[in-house]
Design goal:
The chain is an all-beta fold. It contains no helices and 22 strands. The strands form four sheets. A seven-stranded mixed β-sheet has the order 1-20-17-22-15-13-14, with no helix packed on it. Strands 2-3-4-11-6-9-12 form a seven-stranded antiparallel β-sheet, with no helix packed on it. This is Pirin family protein.
């Protein structure tokens, strides 16, 4: 088993006034040769967007982009005709493929938006762009894994499709509960991000916004030492 620990206070940080962004991996002005990716997981940004502010129209190409709101709602608009808000409990995926443009905006006059943005390297380039978002019931992640993203050729339940052999799970673990992760493939690793709470993984204690990458093993156990919310990304490591 191979592990890598990313403590919350070691992340890159950018304060743009309207946007505060914590970078787990190298992004924009934060460049760290030891923090380029975890397998196919290229970006994990923890963003806080101030009221009535947002990201203007900008392009993406050949990347699988996943947005997960943690607080507030983020309005989305793109050149494929999609125009709607992404709210807490929902997950959004965009397969950028041959290219798309979109904008994201916090319409609230008083409340900031906090969301996670993940970029996963695609399995194939230049696919037809695709956009989907879906609400996932909170009951489906209590002390169990809820699959919210899966490969487009191996969809599980109501999961959203991406063009990569990667999965994203959410779980809410009550204190003293455990959950086992079993890899879909021997080539896959797990990246466990603690949204809130305190857990133990592979003899490592992790707290709010800490993360651990685990690879070269077929299964791992996560124990919650407090009520904890986790996002788990399973990705190919090669």
């Amino acid at each position: 088993m191979k592990t890598i620990i990313h403590k919350s206070n070691t992340r890159g940080f950018a304060n743009h006034g309207w946007l505060k962004s914590f970078h787990t991996f190298s992004f924009a002005s934060y460049q760290n040769a030891e923090r380029m990716n975890f397998g196919a997981l290229r970006v994990l940004n923890d963003d806080l967007v101030q009221p009535k502010m947002g990201f203007g129209t900008h392009p993406h190409q050949n990347m699988e982009i996943i947005s997960i709101p943690l607080k507030g709602a983020l309005s989305h608009k793109d050149n494929m005709g999609n125009k709607r808000a992404i709210e807490v409990g929902e997950v959004q995926v965009m397969s950028a493929g041959t290219g798309l443009t979109h904008s994201e905006f916090n319409d609230s006059k008083t409340d900031e938006v906090n969301f996670l943005q993940l970029w996963i390297l695609p399995q194939e380039l230049n696919v037809v762009p695709n956009y989907e978002q879906r609400q996932f019931p909170i009951a489906g992640k209590h002390n169990q894994l809820q699959t919210v993203v899966a490969p487009k050729d191996k969809i599980e339940g109501n999961a959203l499709p991406i063009s990569q052999q990667a999965y994203i799970y959410r779980t809410l673990l009550n204190s003293d509960n455990s959950i086992e992760l079993i890899a879909k493939s021997k080539q896959n690793g797990f990246y466990v991000f603690v949204v809130d709470g305190k857990i133990e993984v592979a003899s490592n204690s992790l707290e709010r916004r800490d993360a651990i990458g685990v690879s070269e093993t077929e299964n791992i156990e996560i124990k919650a030492n407090q009520n904890s919310e986790l996002i788990i990304i399973e990705v190919p490591m090669d």
